[in-house]
Amino acid sequence: MNKRFTYALLVALVYGVIIAILSYVMGGQVNWNSVIGSAIAGFILFAFVWKSRENKRLAKQQQEEGRI
User: Fold this and answer.
1) Rg, C-alpha atoms of the chain
2) pTM above 0.85, yes or no
3) How far apart are CA 4 and CA 20, in angstroms?
């Protein structure tokens, strides 16, 4: 596995654990639909959205360095 995919799985796990703890504290039981949804959202966020934003930021930074 490449590094980005490994980190995306880690972020998905962390999002799932955080929402499980929060749902247990707030409601007294774990809402598994929220846990699964947050884990999927964490994976998508880190694997795809974060990487595209990073690429745009790096391209903009390189373009600005070329102007100076």
Assistant:
1) 17
2) no
3) 24
DSSP string computed for 25-47:
HHHSS--HHHHHHHHHHHHHIII
Q: Which residues contact residue 5 at a Cβ distance below 8 angstroms, ignoring those fewer than 6 apart?
A: 47
* 3-27 helix and 32-44 helix, angle to the nearest 10 degrees: 150
List pLDDT tens digits, range 9-52: 888 888 889 988 998 898 888 888 888 898 898 888 888 887 77
Tally the C-alpha atoms within 13 A of residue 46's C-alpha that lie toward its C-beta: 18
10: closest CA among 50, 36, 46, 38?
46
